[in-house]
Structure formats: structure tokens, C-alpha cells
Design goal:
six-stranded mixed beta sheet; Molybdopterin biosynthesis moeA protein, domain 3; alpha+beta; 38 strands; 4 domains
């Protein structure tokens, strides 16, 4: 049966429809349960908590010293100290001791002088002790009065309050050893897909086509657990209408919320909408968002059931947008608002009209200006979320954003992390990933954010003041020199140091065995050869174009020339998986994926760093690793195809 999406709702309309329908169905706050206060951290109160007792519940000494009657000290002065008899006019107390009856002040032990009554010596009377004080003690000086902290009947925490560690202390101090809290929402996550296999099954052998390691359910379960939910994760259910229907029906009986992951689209084996409609009702099928359009919301026996798309970014985003606020509502909380910032977008980005697009971005602070750089936009690019610092929303009524536009970023990391992030925009190299790990390992305060827009894009980012450094390997055809001519041309008005990272081998990647006998650029015009290219402005693209020009080959004659990837590893993956027969990339990417490598050129890969950043602590830390960290250097060499003889040397400019 051919399937189509039902009406695709705008984002705001989708919110309204979901919560209006849940409200009319009576789906609201969960019932209360009593728990021990000592174990209530993170729970949400189901009723207000009032103090049963005052704290402290007796007048107590706030200092080590002597309890006195303040009225008996009023005449004390430096030149005429007051003499108080121990046991009668002054009583020694430790911090926290109850105040003796009739005493209303404490003089610190450091402020008194203890003396003996020498006149009693030899008279047969006991030797009596006194204290001298040199200034008056005001009433309740250094005394914690009853209810100083908490007064009996006082409100400790209100209803619908997420209990913090300090709240636990206040409730216990006021005599509340038990507390009524909302029952944790129970959520069941059901992963579906005949091709899905459990991650444990690949611990002893690699997956085989068409197998896919199932991980979305673990991500969704983790997100729900972060919100305080009691999570149940189902075993994988194959693409079978009856089996999915049975799994959902059973989950609804024991859960407050059910998530069905995958099968929310319009394919012949996408059954989620049909299952929900058969067991209850579909509220929404399709929202005008990107990624995440094939999102489903429904009700079964009065409980929300969500159809979450299978692509990982879509799954993550639709959970945050729709499932998270429902879980918060059930817990008695108002929808939380993530911290956001205003940043400048580093490059132009287009977006389709009529769709709210959510773009993952890297964010860094450069010259006290927050810079956001878009990362991969595909719904299946899980690593774009791993690497992202935030998410930017391009509204449905916009066709995109121009470079330099101010944008709101919903942060996924803290502001301090962003402040201490080295922003590297430019050419990709696998050594940057190793450098990023080494920086975090040796200097946990700092991070390296690497956005891959090509060498030329990196230098332009430096020119605009949008990066701390740029990876570059641009070959000047006229001089045969790397990087320096482009620095002089594009950044003539700025002092820039070029620090060598590596010399590396570039070449054509082919599958093991090279069945098509590809030997060089001349083979790229063959009818049976498909090429995978790097993006325009990258040094690898310029290297390719130079060779094609020298050989008189028109780009239009190369099948796949227009198909671009942004990293060497993406090119290697395309060759490995058969999307292309060959592509130009560094040797380390071929070695990583077991591909054969046909050398084309040795090139110099440098880091261009503007002079104003060279004295910053995080750039100093980065350069120290490059120059001195043997572990970093050895790891780079072990990847293959790298020469580190000049690693850390300034090849242009000065430090």
C-alpha cells in the first residue's frame, strides 16, 4: 500500500496539538509517592514541604568561648576590663552547645584573659578563676537563636520543585525525614528494524551487510534518564506489523510514555503510524522540521506514544523538541529552557522555505566575539552531534543566513567550554583529531574545535577574525611553494605565523587489490571509473585541478567530479563502500580503512596562527604538545604517510 504523509504541521502547531490533546485526554501530572528524604535528590515534589521544627531548635553557642549575661559587660573597656567569675557570671561553651539558662551572649575565647584570685591562696579558701573582657558583649552576640535558619511551619520547598542536594539538607534539618514526590515517569523505548542488530553481537565479529548496529535506543534511553524517567529498553523488534503492535500494546500497559524508534516514515515497512492508529489514535504524522519530518505522536489508552525517526540526528532532535516537554509535564515541571547565546555565523548557509531547520554548529570565542560554524547537516550524521557545541534554528520563513549574520544558538555545552576552545577552521587532516585528544588529555580546561571548510575557507575565516588558526596546504602553481604566497595575498594586513604540523602523502585511494587497475589521473576519464571529490576551496581540490589542467583533462569528463566530501576519511569511506571507485586523500585515511594507495604528491600541511593569539594560554598549550609531546608525535607517525621532521617549526613569520 502506497503511503503518504498526513498534513505536515508547522512546529508551533505541532506543539499546540500535542499538548491540547494530552490535556483533553486527562494525561497530566503523575501521582505522588512517599520516599525517604535522604534518597530524594533529583525527584520532583508532589506537595509543598514545610518545616516541622525550627533550626536550631534551641539557643546555641556560635563560637568557642564563654557564655555571659550581656548586661554584666556593659562597663568593660580596654583601660578598665570587666571581671567575671567562672561558673557564676561566665560559663565555658563549645560551638553548638546549648546556652546556659539566663545567659544571652558569648565572648570568643580569643577575646578573654583567664586569671586566678591570688588573694584566696593561703587563706584556706579555694582558688577561684575569673575572666577579663575588654569590651561589652551585646545581647545574642555569637549566639545562634532558635529559628535563626529555619522557623517551624516555614516553607522549605514548593510543589513541583526538582529537589537539589541543599534542599535535602534543609528538609532533614527541619524534621522532614520523608517527602511526597511525583512518581518517576516510566518510559519504554522500542527499537525496530529487521536489519538492526544488538551492539553486543559485534563484540566478537564485525557486522555484515545489511546489518546495522542499533544504538538509537541507548541514546533515547539516556536522554530520558537525564530527565529523571524510569527507562525500560525493549529488545529489537523486526519490521512486522503484528510484532510491533504486540510490543507497543504490552509497553503501554506498564509505561507512561512509549517511544517506537524507526518505522515512522512512508516506506513499505514503516508500520509505526499504522500500529498507533490500530491501538489508539494518531495526533500528528509529519512536522515541517529538518531533520525529523517523519515524526509521529499519538495516544493509546490515554498514554502518549511517539514514533521517532530512525536517523540518529532526527531521533535526538525530535526527542528534545517533543518527548522532553511531555516528560517534564508528567513530572510536574514547566518545560525547561536551554541556555542560549548570540553568535555570528562564519559562512553562508541556505535553507528550504516552509521548514524549521535545526543546524548543528561549533562555537568558539575569537577576540571576544562568538563564532558559530555549521557542521554536517545530514540526519544520519551522529558525529555532527558529538562534535556540536549548539543547535541553530533557521525559521521556516527564511531561505537561509548570510555570512556574518547574528544567530541564536541553543547550547549543548557550557559557556566556559566554549570560551576555552581553540577554533581551527580550514583544511582537514587526521592529525587534528589526534591533536584535539592530546590537548584535552594534557590540558582538560581546553578543547580544539576543528571545522572542515577547506584551506581557502580557513584563511578567509582568519581574515574575518573568525578563527584562532587555520589548517592549510595550498600549493601556489607559479612558485611551487606551499601556503606562504596565499598568506601574503589574503592576509597581507595581519601578522601571521605558519607552524608546520606535518608533511604528508596525497594520493588516489582504491579498494584493496585495485580490481579496476587505476594508476593515475588519466584513468579518471574512463567510463567505468567513478570519482569522489573534495569540496571547492580545499587544498586537495586545488591539487586535483592542477593535475587535471596539466594533463588537459576537463572536470566535466570526470564522473563524480561534482560529488563533494569535506574530509579525507569521508572520501576513504566512499571508496570503501563502493560509492566511488577512487578519490584523492591522504595516506593515513587509506591505511585506516584498509585501502590501497597510489601516491601523487608530498605536501606541507601548516597551521596558520595570527600573531595576536600566539601568547594566549590555550595556543601556548597547543604548541607545547606539537613540539614536545612524544605520545602525540608517535601516534601521528603510526597512522602512516606522515613526515614530522619539521613538526612545530615556524616556516613563515615568527613567534
Amino acid at each position: 500500500m502506497k503511503k503518504i504523509f498526513l498534513e505536515s504541521l508547522k512546529l508551533t502547531e505541532a506543539y499546540e496539538r500535542i499538548f491540547d490533546r494530552l490535556d483533553r485526554s486527562g494525561c497530566c501530572k503523575l501521582p505522588a509517592e512517599m520516599v525517604k528524604t535522604t534518597g530524594s535528590f533529583g525527584r520532583v515534589t508532589a506537595e509543598a514541604v514545610f518545616a516541622k521544627y525550627s533550626s536550631p531548635f534551641y539557643h546555641s553557642a556560635a563560637m568557642d568561648g564563654y557564655a555571659v549575661r550581656s548586661a554584666g559587660t556593659f562597663k568593660a573597656a580596654e583601660t578598665d576590663p570587666c571581671l567575671l567569675k567562672l561558673g557564676a557570671d561566665a560559663v565555658y561553651v563549645d560551638t553548638g552547645d546549648p546556652m546556659p539558662e539566663g545567659f544571652n551572649a558569648v565572648v570568643m575565647i580569643e577575646d578573654v584573659n583567664v586569671i586566678s584570685d591570688q588573694s584566696a591562696v593561703g587563706s584556706g579558701q579555694s582558688n577561684e578563676e575569673y575572666i577579663e573582657i575588654y569590651q561589652p558583649a551585646v545581647p545574642y552576640q555569637h549566639v545562634r537563636t532558635i529559628g535563626e535558619d529555619i522557623v517551624a511551619t516555614e516553607l522549605i520547598v514548593p510543589e513541583n520543585h526538582r529537589i537539589r542536594a541543599i534542599d535535602v539538607g534543609a528538609m532533614l534539618a527541619s524534621g522532614n525525614v520523608d517527602v511526597w514526590v511525583r512518581r518517576r515517569p516510566v518510559i519504554t523505548v522500542i527499537p525496530t528494524g529487521t536489519e538492526m542488530i544488538d551492539a553486543e553481537s559485534v563484540s566478537s565479529r564485525p557486522p555484515k551487510p545489511p546489518e546495522i548496529i542499533e544504538y538509537n535506543s541507548s541514546v533515547l534511553s539516556g536522554l530520558a534518564a537525564e530527565l529523571g524517567a524510569d527507562v525500560r529498553r525493549s529488545t529489537i523488534v523486526s519490521d512486522d506489523l503484528d510484532k510491533i503492535s504486540k510490543a507497543v500494546g504490552e509497553a503501554v500497559e506498564i509505561s507512561d510514555v512509549v517511544i517506537v524508534n524507526a518505522g515512522s516514515g512512508k516506506g513499505t515497512e514503516d508500520y509505526t503510524a499504522q500500529v498507533i492508529a490500530g491501538l489508539g489514535e494518531v495526533i500528528i504524522h509529519s512536522v515541517a522540521i529538518k531533520p525529523g519530518k517523519p515524526f509521529i505522536a499519538g495516544l493509546v489508552k490515554g498514554k502518549p506514544v511517539f514514533g521517532i525517526p530512525g536517523y540518529p540526528v532526527s531521533a535526538y532532535l525530535t526527542f528534545r523538541l517533543f518527548v522532553k516537554p511531555v516528560l517534564e509535564m508528567l513530572s510536574g515541571l514547566s518545560p525547561s529552557v536551554s541556555e542560549d547565546i548570540t553568535a555570528v555565523i562564519s559562512r553562508q548557509i541556505s535553507s528550504p522555505l516552509g521548514v524549521d531547520e535545526f543546524v548543528r554548529v561549533k562555537v568558539g570565542s575569537v577576540n571576544d566575539k562568538l563564532i558559530a560554524t555549521p557542521v554536517g547537516r545530514g540526519a544520519g550524521l551522529m558525529m555532527s552531534l558529538v562534535r556540536a557545541d549548539g543547535i541553530m534554528n533557521i525559521p521556516a520563513d527564511s531561505e537561509g543566513l548570510s555570512s556574518g549574520s547574528e544567530v541564536k544558538i541553543d547550547l549543548l555545552r557550557g559557556r566556559d567550554e566554549i570560551k576555552n576552545t581553540v577554533v581551527c577552521i580550514g583544511s582537514h587532516d587526521n592529525a587534528l583529531d589526534i591533536l584535539s585528544n592530546s590537548l584535552k588529555k594534557n590540558y582538560p580546561l581546553y578543547s580544539l574545535s576543528s571545522a572542515h571548510v577547506g584551506s581557502m575557507g580557513g584563511l578567509i575565516a582568519l581574515k574575518r577574525g573568525e578563527a584562532h588558526m587555520a589548517g592549510t596546504h595550498l600549493l601556489d602553481e607559479d612558485s611551487g611553494e606551499y601556503n606562504v604566497p596565499f598568506i601574503k595575498k589574503l592576509l597581507a594586513d595581519r601578522k601571521v605565523a605558519l607552524v608546520n604540523l606535518v608533511y604528508r602523502q596525497q594520493g588516489l585511494l582504491v579498494k584493496k587489490g585495485n580490481a579496476k587497475r587505476i594508476n593515475g589521473f588519466s584513468d579518471l576519464v574512463r567510463d567505468d571509473v567513478v570519482f569522489i571529490n573534495r569540496q571547492s576551496g580545499s587544498g586537495t581540490r586545488l591539487l586535483l585541478d592542477k593535475h587535471l589542467k596539466d594533463m588537459g583533462i576537463a572536470p566535466a569528463d570526470v564522473k563524480g567530479y561534482e560529488h563533494e566530501e569535506y574530509t579525507h576519511m569521508a572520501v576513504a569511506s566512499a571508496v570503501l563502500t563502493g560509492l566511488a571507485d577512487t578519490g584523492l586523500a591522504v595516506y593515513s585515511s587509506a591505511a585506516a580503512l584498509g585501502l590501497d594507495f597510489i601516491p601523487v604528491a608530498n605536501e606541507r600541511y601548516d597551521l596558520a596562527i595570527p600573531a595576536e593569539f600566539l601568547e594566549t594560554d590555550m595556543i601556548k598549550a597547543l604548541l607545547k604538545i606539537i613540539r614536545e609531546d612524544k605520545g602525540f608525535r608517535n601516534t601521528v607517525v603510526s597512522m602512516g604517510g606522515y613526515d614530522i621532521s619539521d613538526m612545530g617549526r615556524v616556516v613563515f613569520g615568527s613567534l
